[in-house]
Amino acid sequence: MTILNVAGRKLPPAIKPFLKKTLYRWIPLRWRMGREYWQLRSFLDSAQWWDKERIEAWQLEKMRAIVDYAFNHVPGYHQLYQEVGYHPGDLRTLANVKSLPFITRALIQENNEAFISNAIPAWQRYHETTGGSSGTPLGFFKNKTSLIAENAFIHSHWGWVGWRFGSRTVVLRGPLKTNNDRLWDADQADRSLFLSTFHLNQTTYPQYQKKIKQFKALTSRPIPPQPSCWQIKSSRQVKSVSCPLSTSCWDQKSSSPGKSPT
To answer: What is the pTM of this model?
Structure first.
């Protein structure tokens, strides 16, 4: 999903399909992502070669900024941190993370409003949910910054297994946002086919197989007639399917690249 998709949520529903099929699709894909996206991609390309000391220094800097932000702007975290005696700046080493209180899915679900940043206006955030694979979807909010970071990190990881920007891409994760009952949704403007992993099983697999072939995002290597755990968890076997069924292994995000510590 791109930033323009978020802006599109503010438009009347009746005109969205028309704009998507006409004006939007003619905007070069690289332009749609925005300058911040490309700056973060450039940062990630260089940061992957850092040595351990530099990585840990950057991790500490960002971890401290995130925790202090939560203390100052998220009431739920502020209360939890106060209860254990944490004050902004107390996170001096990565090992200090162990002193921070744990949170649980249930705690957030029962106190959702308390875990929303008071520094971000309501009009700048939009609601998302997890796929619900654990039983109950977890709701949370995103904004433009987190969307940029998500795209940049995921695309960088996809690149490690052969994905190229602008490639026709099959994305498998969670129920579809457009319609929870649908098995797939094609986005021709973004050259992406979104498949719902929520409905993927032995019965529906042939339909997924046929749809992926029709989308022409595969190499000459055929899809196995039956799904296997190895295939589902790896994007190497089906090279052009650039995203595995779960992106849970790519959950580390940064709000901005910033500058590395010297």
So the answer is: 0.67
pLDDT in 10s for each residue of the chain, 262 residues? 444 555 555 566 566 666 666 666 677 777 878 889 999 999 999 999 999 999 999 999 999 999 999 999 999 999 999 999 999 999 999 999 999 999 988 899 899 899 999 999 998 888 887 766 666 778 888 888 888 998 899 889 888 888 888 788 888 776 666 566 788 887 766 778 888 887 888 898 899 888 888 887 643 233 344 444 333 333 333 333 333 333 333 333 333 444 444 4
DSSP calls for 171-230? EE-SS-SS-TT-SEEEETTTTEEEE-GGG-STTTHHHHHHHHHHHT---SSPPPSS--HH
Domain ranges of the chain: 3-9+27-47+149-249
